[in-house]
Amino acid sequence: AYAPRFRHVLCSGLQSGHMAILEEATVVSRVLALLSHRCSLAESLLTETAAPACVFVVSSCLAERSSPSEVFIPITAVERLGAQIPLDSEASPAEVPSVFHQRVGYLALELFRSLLVALLRVASSPRWLSGAGNVATVSPVPA
User: Fold this and answer.
1) I want to staple 118 with a disulfide (CB 3.0 to 4.6 A). Which of 10, 33, 52, 74 is the partner?
2) Whole-model pTM?
3) Considering only CA atoms, which of 109, 127, 129 is closest in space to residue 117?
4) Residue 100 and residue 105: Cα distance in Å, rounded?
């Protein structure tokens, strides 16, 4: 029931630049990490969504920590207060350092960590290892 939403959030929702989607993606990654070794659906969702989510988070949130994110812009009044920008100004990046900037960094690191834990659990599961063993025993194609 949640698979379409998980796919959307991790594959395309993050690019919207909304803090709420980044928070939701972090929760999704935690859920996938918890279910990854118990649920084949979680495993398939990880194989589809982990790479695009990780690439986006690293390139947009973690690449340059000394400058504000051009993707995640504070929108709500609370976000603007946390970003140290005037409430009545046009949309602009958060000040560095600011609570908003730190929150984006924390959520990005947490999302990345959870996806790595989930992928590690999938890669070390007996089901996956037995499948990898079967692939390794297939004779190579002659050249």
Assistant:
1) 33
2) 0.81
3) 109
4) 9
